[in-house]
Amino acid sequence: MAKYIRRDATAMATWDPVLYWYARAVGEMQQRNPDEDPTGWVYQARIHGVEKSRLTKDTRPGWNQCPHGGWFFLPWHRGYLWYFEKIVRAAIQQIATREGRIAPKDWALPYWNYARDPAGELPAFTSRALPAAFREPTMPEHPDGSGQQVPNPLYLPDAAVPEKDFWKKPHRGVGKNSAAEVVPYDEASPYCAMLRNFFSLPLGPPVPQPSFGSGNTGHDMPHYEKRGPGVLELTPHGMIHDGVAGWMGEVAGSARDPIFWLHHANIDRFWPAWLRRGDGRKNPNDQSWLTRKYTFFDEAGTMLTPTTEEVLTSAGDYEYQSLDSGTGEQPAVCARQLAPAEERVLVMSNPGHPLSLAGPTEVPLEAANDSSQTQDFLAGGAVPENGLILTVRGIRSNVPPGTPYRIYLNPPQGQGEGQPDDAYFVGWVSFFGSSEGEHHGNGDGNEFSYDITERVRQLQEQGMWAEGPVTVSLVPSTTIPGELAAGPHAPQPTIDRVTITTR
Fold it and tell me: Cβ distance 89 to 83 under 8 Å?
């Protein structure tokens, strides 16, 4: 029996003792020296990532480590959460001792179960909204709810912050502190990731399809990798970061938002839920994966360098309240995601496209050459023998836009605002890690590729492939308030180019 139980925050009362004591510990950690105390809030957040301006100054041991786009994504974040959980548990006891209170010694990090509610008509409060404890500016002074209301350390204002003040003012995206969902079900559900029955494919050329645990990167622990993220790392991981936005939308700032830790506890929960499904699902046994070392700090501030194998062993003193609820038991739309690769370009857009925050952005595609394959595709959507791949390149924004974007292929004019089950839907683009101020984001911006072979064939068979110019429509997944979209501090998401290629 595990010593600690991580519970579902979406099923808790607003100030359940787990959330009350988490808030108190966050407040305690925020008072610690951000540059010298490894158990402090900012120091811990900078282990994940450091804002670009801070990298021009002295850095500290362990900062700026987070791996994305590779197979260390899951084990590194597991160790990161586990040591953080120990720091929080110790902080809770320090507060209780100082105030003469009794606090739970078995406190464990809760998880944000955002895929608990299925798609369709939503209740008054949906699990895909931030739990109430994170949306309220104040909290009870005492754990029994008595005393005056005091500032709530779990709360970040949802505000439009000028780019120059992005790091000066803690914030989330506009409207994210309401009881509305931050992203729709298809973007919050791990359903598609759970269908994958391999953690990573062997190291080598870009793989033909993504994995559950992101691509094999050998012993390297990249921050971003052209081989592309695994399905789980994009959906729901990147989608949730995009949906909350503000500091959560930046790799460098995400761990400063207290909801980050509940989001990643849920991502970690999907891992044992995936393993439990069997059918060949298992962790890698490659020595380059098992022996990779990370740098973390325990509750005493002592620096430790556990390996993946040691993280999997030592972080075994907890279990989750449920491995069923919200783990992809309800179907969701799956995109045919691919790892980016060099292909023969048939059609492409001109470079440089600002994206609308309020509605579709139509991107026309033109012939890249005069080959017969290109002309046949333009004339009637002919599918080459080697298939078709749509890639969106150079995905950037000055600050997180507050939403992922959906991609639609050749939709009828004015009909590019459907749901993911729309006949023209291709996939998503995520801006997590793509902002211009990112410390270690891909300098070329994010890039996502999707196999559109069957999509084009289906549109042809149903008589829905429109003759004439080929277009791609990019549509924000969630509504951006009109005053923000048109305001002086509006985010400026852009893409560089869209291509359709064949192998």
Answer: no
Q: Is the pLDDT of residue 292 over 50?
A: yes
**What is the Cα–Cα distance from 408 to 423, expressed in whole angstroms?**
9
326 SS3 class: coil
| pTM score above 0.90 | yes
Q: Is 29 helix (H, G, I), strand (E, B) or coil?
A: helix
Sheet holding 361-367, edge to edge: 337-338, 446-451, 389-395, 497-502, 344-348, 361-367, 470-476, 405-409, 425-429
**Do 183 and 240 form a contact (C-beta atoms < 8 A)?**
yes
Whether the per-residue pLDDT at 460 is higher than 70: the answer is yes
Residue reference for tokens 């005069």: 370
For the stretch 465-478, what's the b/e string if a residue is b when 16 or more beta carbons lie within 10 angstroms of its beta carbon?
beeeebbbbbbbbb
What DSSP string describes 141-154? SSTTS-S-EEE-TT
HSE-up of residue 450 (Cα within 13 Å, Cβ side): 23
Which amino acid belongs to residue 355?
L
Residues 365 and 417 sit within 8 Å (Cβ to Cβ) = no
Which residues are bridge partners to 497 per DSSP?
393
Residues 6+ apart with CB under 8 A from 213: 71, 73, 74, 199, 200, 230, 232, 271, 284
Q: Are 60 and 43 in contact (CB under 8 A)?
A: yes
State which H helix or E strand residue 210 sits in.
none
The answer to whether 390 and 335 are in contact (CB under 8 A) is: no
Within 10 Å of residue 100's Cβ, how many Cβ atoms?
6
Report the DSSP beta bridge partners of residue 45. none
| 502 in Cβ contact with 373 (< 8 Å) | yes
Mean pLDDT of the chain: 90
Q: Which amino acid is at 195?
A: L
In order of 118, 213, 277, 406, 480, the CA distances from 328 in angstroms are: 9, 16, 11, 20, 27
- Residue 111, beta-bridge partner list: 8
Helix (H, G, I), strand (E, B) or coil at 344: strand
